[in-house]
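JOB MANIFEST
job_type = single_chain_structure
chain_count = 1
residues = 133
[input]
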Amino acid sequence: MAHVLTYMPTAETWKNWKNTKRLPYQGVVKRDWVPTGRIDFATRLNGNAEDADQPSEFKLLVEERRIVESIAGNENLEIQWRLATLKEAKAVVTQYHKYLSENSLIKSIFDETASLPPPKKALANSSAQGAAT
């Protein structure tokens, strides 16, 4: 009987084992995180209608998914949203500017200045300087 008691934990050991937090089994990752192409923006709004028209900080969020096989052999799809990287944010802005220019929703600086007449003050000053010499 003494031999069996040597393998039995003491009361303190049993309490410590029950109180330790063990991570749940995560399964085997069959396909790691892959971007889905979906994006979203996050900001701090208090729900006030007046805040919707005020400038604010926005964070670009990117959706990702992965496939994990559980201990029973089932494939589970996990989805998460994370903050975008600088490279991803630049790609979004580039595509947005391309869309605006293709649909004539934005004017370039050159389009606006080409239609302006030449300044009159510069012409008056140059003719006055020519007469003085």
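[summary]
The radius of gyration is 33 Å.
The first strand starts at residue 28 and ends at 42.
exit_status = 0
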